[in-house]
Amino acid sequence: MKLKDFQDSFQRAILDGDDTILSDIPDGPRETKTNLLGIYRDAYVLRLIDVIGNDHEMLRRYLGEAQFEDMARAYIASCPSNHPNARWFAHRLPEFLRATAPYSGRPVLAELAALERALNDAFDSADAPILRMADLAAIPAQAWGKLCFVRHPGAIRLDTHTNAGAIWVALKAEEEPPPWATADDATRLLVWRNGSTSMFRELTAEEAMMWDEAVKGLCFGDLCEMLAIYDDPPNAPARAAGYLKTWLDVGTLSELVLRR
Amino acid sequence: MSNRRNRNTTTAPGTQPAAADEARRPPYLGFGLGLRPKHYRDILDSNPQVDWFEVISENYMIDGGQPLAFLDQIAERYPVVMHGVSLSIASTAAFDEDYLDRLNALAKRVNPKWISDHLCWTGVHGVNLHDLLPFPYTREALDHVVSRVHYVQERIGRQLCLENVSTYVQFGQSEMTEWEFISELTRRTGCWLLFDVNNVYVSAFNHGYDARAFLNGIPADRVIQFHLAGHSDMTNYVVDTHDHPVRDEVWDLYEAALERFGPVSTMIERDDDIPPLANMLDELAHARDLAQKMLGPKVLSRSPPPASAA
Fold it and tell me: I need a labelling partner for B100 at 20 to 30 A (CA). Which of A67, A226, B61, B270 fits?
């Protein structure tokens, strides 16, 4: 058997339970070849369950060990790893849970997974400077309208349509999570890295709108005008400045661009 | 496989390295540990008596954040060696060029004393099984792996170091022993060897051969690193779990390895049920004591050891 055919056969033995490769494996001195091959089959699944569990601690806690393991086995069977780094093995978990019964019937699961994915992504996102309030001090007042902002790579926005965020908070505090529920209006979350910890908070609809447009490159003047159209025009610049100050305080922006 | 067990393998195959190759031999580093996130803070706070750290390359092939920040700080204080798990040197799938680019970028960042991975494959058809998988030791496989090692060595601009893995199955189509395969591989490519003492014990137990046949069967002058680790005893077989302290039978084999290979940079791997750093330091002190008992005070120096007799 050519090496290529051997590897194809051995991989099928692990992924699909195909026993063809056993014809080329002798029994061990103390153990049957089936059990010896089983070491690889078991290790494959157990290792990846562990990877998913490490990346999704709150989802694991929420589901409980038995349900979590069933879910993880289904994911492993459906989405074999395609990356040399196991760090990204669970990256497709939110989409899997959203699309696959019975998990799709509880959309909070996909959203918990998506929140944990964003927290993980923030944790080891690219390093970049953190823009602070002091960096804006040198900007003359008349230039503020043309100020644009660059998102820190660790700042990630996501919307949920369940109370996944509240459930995550309760689980993290080792408290009884509230019953899951869906809502018509989205809950808007901003995830970011604070030193060595990933965090998230809920944004109002207005702040989320301003953030989403700001990181697309809209200048501060245009953002103020957008907020004025949204609500209470006279106070829009003050509200915009307030949101900006919060972002600078927590470190979700990395760069300032002065548009001419 | 019993015929192989009885084959005379006490004379190491391979060739004497050229003087130029000996000059490229990485330095002797002494006694190290695998760097694990659980110990980052302790290491930086206490500057423990560890001669060097081995880092899992893939754990740092990320864009940024705390893991890389800790790695940078530790690499400033200690010599570092990069140890990968996903090179998949024996795979028949094409190399993942992005992986090799990231490996090079990490090497540029931490300036490792050497770069190692495993003599195994991890998947084909775009799948990674995240395991160190065995393959038959055939002449075809040898030619294939030789060409891949040459390619990687070109790509990373240095000699690769390859580790023997623990195996649980053997294959009827194998045409040579593992140690014959390894010897021929290093002879034809100039790659260095990472002799994992625990893996030799595990494979020898599982396949019923004498671990010392393996030990005596590979060229001593190519071994630049030892791994020590704990395994799980399942009665009929043993599994390389890295979740226990090093067991007595592996310490015994380590002594035999010291006798044959002389002072070789040694480290202890622990990947599960990781104890506090102090426990790892105690275990490392035991390795150092054994080596000192066997070889004298020269093992305490980081200077290059004299060339060991093959």
Answer: B270
